[in-house]
Amino acid sequence: MFHFASEQECLEGKTTEISQLSSLALSGDTVARERSSVGLPEKTGYPDSVYVTAANIFRGIRFEKSPEKVLIKYGSEPLRSDTESEDEFLQRLSYELAFSVLKYQDILETMLIDSCIFPNTTIPDHLNSLIIVMLYDFQDRKFQARLLSDNQESIAEVLEVESLLNSFKTKLAAALARCRIKHDALSLYHILPETVRNQELRASTLPLYAWINTCKISPEEVYNSLKKKGYNEVKSVLHIDDKVFAVDQHCYDVLIFPSHLKNDLLNIDLFKDYKLIFQDKSRSLAVHSVKALLNMDDDILMVNSGSWYTVAHMSILTNNNTSKIFVCGVQSQAKDPDLKKLFRKMGCKNIETLHETFINLESKDHRLQKVKVILLLPRCSGLGVSNPVEFILNEHEDTDLLKDFSQGGTSEDKLHVLAQQQYEQLTHAMKFTRAQAVVYCTCSVYPEENEAVVKKALEFQDYGSKVQPYRLSPPVLPLCSLMEINLSTDKFFRMEPSEITNGCFLSVLTRERDPSETVSVKDVLARAAAKGLLDGIELGKPSKLEKKKKKSKMSLPKASTDSNVIQMKIAEFLSREASANVNRSETLTTQTSLPQKNTNQVGSSSQVRKSDKPASNLLVPTFMKNTPPARLYERPTSFVRPRPEDRMIALKPIEIVLPPVVLPFSSSQGISSHIPTPHCYCHWVGPKTVMPSHLPTPSIPRRAEKRKENLPSSLPRHPRPWL
Hints:
By secondary structure, this protein is an alpha/beta fold. 46% of the residues lie in helices and 8% in strands. The chain contains 27 helices and 15 strands. The strands form 3 sheets. Strands 8, 9, 10, 11, 12, 13, 14 and 15 form an 8-stranded mixed β-sheet that branches. A 5-stranded mixed β-sheet has the order 4-5-6-3-7. It has a two-stranded antiparallel sheet with strand order 1-2. α2 (48-61) packs across α3 and α17 crosses α18. The termini are far apart. Mean pLDDT is 76; it is low at 11-40, 555-561, 585-640, 644-650, 662-716 and 718-723. Residues 198-512 form the SAM-dependent MTase RsmB/NOP-type domain.
């Protein structure tokens, strides 16, 4: 029992408190009406075990004052309780209660002193943390009695403190009223700093993110199951009170739900059977970035993974690969059975835990020889997160971070310490010579923990090693808005805290692969599939293009048997045309000798090409096989002696590039500009020398043009050009 020194002294001035209590009652009624208008349930208190656990948490994270200002001592021993539960829900309630007490620590201590509970009451020091925790809940219930369930186990210390607070109920209410008047605030909430109030407001409306365990269920099956339970798919869940969900734009396996549906979602089988897992979106962005950098058999090293759900998500994404995931920093081997049990329930098979800390892990460790990507999730201030309790519990972060959240910021000294730790971890990750990429991700909004750390590590990296140095790479995630594009101009991926998501910073460091290492086709396809470029294509089946190539290869030997016949016919045709040109005009024998010579040269050059590149001739009979006989195309030739440069241009396509019978044009562009029909009868693969489609001809007098019409030509005439 508690002993009171002089309770009568504290009863003086009771008359002045009545007016204050009346104003408190009015404000209390107003707050109660506001609570009922928004649909929030009335507070009925917590189980005894939650009070005890919250008191122990608060004792460890409280703000310590200088000795001359200390009026309330909290002792050094935690409260003992045999009924403390490891239930996740009760643990979350305990952390939320302790964090709320931390935010109002100064006000609650003032109320205890102003109401004469301290120092006039003799209370053991180790119970003071329990008193201040229960006082916060007492005033939050508007000083109403707690409702207890019949099957709830009671704790003696909790009952004693509850009796004490009830006996000082009037004085505590008066002390709260005076505190509100002093700060000119309607409630305790309005006394908090603005940054903390905005943070709490975002936390109450922030959508829920959950990723799909594709080892157990497909996304389509999840959509159908949710629709059967009354959920409708929408593009955005903001400001919607109905049962809806949306698919995230950055991660194809992440769903978004309105915040008010959490209790309803936790009771459906999809979450109970680990088919859907709640987690902050920043962690899904990190694992998807790693997935986009992986080959089929690359291993992954995860550092400071925090939540085991992050490790499980990484395992699910690499389930179809031969990759192995190494998780370092598992402090106790006693956790291994629990982790393996959790991973087994979720269908994860490729996870191996390492008990060494990352800094003590050797880069030449034989277990890590195939590690190509390192995912670094360093301990950070986390000021980009709206719900600090969720962040602490899910990421297994130090509860000391709750102090920073309660004040809305981090001190410069602490920020410097965190940045130094992050820099050391990042530089150590860059020492793994076989690793080809490092993904660095934080939930912080401070540049000192983000850009400054990455730039410093890149600037001071060791260039003396034989491996390629790291460089900053653009984000491998899709940029879905103009804001994201603007925030990623310097190759960093950023998401500012908003009403739809927490803050996130992500950086990808890569280096060129060792030239001695070859990348297989499977690796290229796997990386393309990870980026969503092969959507709907099965990698195991050959494509239609490959089948066509196989058929064409099988038909090539038949083409080679007919190529000699075609070449013989071409040679006979050339000789017949040459003799006809000689007999047609005896007066122009001296002039026609030059084209005849050129024709012979073309025939010889075509034979040389046949021996050098037989593949070009193999395609000829494939197109000529069923073609009807075509008329010959006559190419006009001028016999007026041109200038030296004109003669060189006119002879160039005949002597070097194109056989006159096979192809009158050297490019498909020239052909398409002259002939509208798309049909072709022969394909000729010319030499690498590119010739113009139209040959410039010298200006010819009209007298020469008349003579030109009557002159023979060495070129055949065709209705359609051969390709």
